[in-house]
Specification:
The chain has strands spanning 2-3, 6-14, 17-22, 44-47, 53-58, 61-66. It has 69 residues and is mainly beta. The chain has one domain (2-66). The strands form 2 sheets. A 3-stranded antiparallel β-sheet has the order 1-2-3, with no helix packed on it. Strands 4-5-6 form a 3-stranded antiparallel β-sheet, with no helix packed on it. The radius of gyration is 12 Å and the shape is globular. The relative contact order is 0.26. Residues 34-43 have a biased composition (Basic and acidic residues).
């Protein structure tokens, strides 16, 4: 996935959390506080051909996320 001119990877760091990190350095791009009430189970991830969005399938729902560029 491309963001701010860098290549990044979307990865699951907990059953209910996705994070975005710079591929070359591992620098996290999704700093945030934990949300204990968040109970969405993340499933399959598909990156768009242009690397700016990804589709997430989980808990019977489909969600599209963008890199913010």
């Amino acid at each position: 996935m491309a963001t701010a001119g860098r290549t990044a990877v979307v990865h699951r760091t907990a059953w209910n959390r996705l994070d975005l990190s710079v591929t070359a350095t591992g620098e996290p791009l999704t700093p945030r506080s934990p949300r204990p009430d968040h109970d969405h189970d993340h499933g399959a991830l598909y990156v768009s051909p242009d690397g700016r969005r990804f589709l997430e399938l989980g808990d019977g729902a489909a969600r599209v996320w963008a890199s913010g560029t």
